[in-house]
Structures are given as structure tokens and as C-alpha cells.
């Protein structure tokens, strides 16, 4: 009889624990639609970058380097713009502008590699001047 009472008590406790566990189970994590959209956009940017970079593989010499720089730049700007879209702020707007200036400079500088001597020096000097103007404009945005 004692064993029967112990078995009943143990079975009751187990049933209570199981019911308690079911009641306190948190619901499945709800996916924020905005975050899902953001992640999908990030994935698309990465996929576009990979496709753009793969397209560069068919090219040769400096054209290939310019193409790769353009692909990296496009990705960098797209990510900055996505962040600005997700969380609009002056800081993120500046980051978009900075990305555009940096990318323009990197591409211009890479294009200068096609030239030689004085023409190359002039090209690099012009790219640096354009970059400096862009940075000055960004600095003015901060005020």
C-alpha cells in the first residue's frame, strides 16, 4: 500500500511539473518584419556584390582592378544607405556621404593607374582634390 501511495504521489508530481512547464513555455520568438526586411536587404547587397565581383573576373589588367573597386564601392554605399533607411539620423547621413566620397576617390585613383608619368600625377592630384572637397562638404554637414 505504501508503494502504491508513493507511486501515485510521484505520478501526480510529474503531471503537475509537466503542466507547469507547458504553461510557462515562452511563445515562439516573433520575427520583427522590419528586421527581416533589413536582413533580406543586407543579403541582397552581398549577393549583388558577389555577382558584380564575379563579372570582373572576365576582365584583365587595370580594367579588372577598376571593376572590383566599383563593386566594393557599390556594396559599401548600399550598406550605408540601408543603415540610413533603417535608422535615419544625421550620423548615418554623414556615413552615406563619407562612403560616396571614399568610393569615388578609390575608383578615380584606380583609374589613374592606366596612365603614366605626368598624366598619372595630374590624375591622382585631381582625385585627391575632389576627395578633399567632398570631405570638406561632409565636415560642413556636422555643423
TrEMBL record:
Signal recorded as keyword: yes
Assigned keywords, A-Z: Signal
Extent of the signal sequence: 1-21
Protein name: Cell envelope biogenesis protein TolA
Organism for this UniProt entry: Variovorax paradoxus
Amino acid at each position: 500500500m505504501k508503494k502504491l501511495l508513493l507511486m501515485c504521489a510521484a505520478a501526480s508530481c510529474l503531471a503537475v511539473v509537466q503542466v507547469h512547464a507547458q504553461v510557462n513555455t515562452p511563445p515562439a520568438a516573433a520575427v520583427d518584419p522590419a528586421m527581416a526586411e533589413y536582413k533580406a536587404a543586407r543579403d541582397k547587397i552581398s549577393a549583388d556584390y558577389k555577382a558584380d565581383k564575379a563579372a570582373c573576373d572576365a576582365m584583365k589588367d587595370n580594367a579588372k582592378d577598376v571593376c572590383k573597386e566599383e563593386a566594393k564601392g557599390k556594396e559599401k554605399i548600399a550598406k550605408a544607405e540601408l543603415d540610413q533607411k533603417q535608422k535615419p539620423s544625421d550620423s548615418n547621413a554623414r556615413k552615406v556621404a563619407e562612403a560616396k566620397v571614399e568610393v569615388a576617390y578609390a575608383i578615380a585613383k584606380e583609374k589613374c593607374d592606366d596612365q603614366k608619368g605626368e598624366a598619372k600625377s595630374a590624375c591622382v592630384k585631381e582625385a585627391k582634390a575632389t576627395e578633399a572637397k567632398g570631405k570638406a562638404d561632409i565636415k560642413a554637414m556636422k555643423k
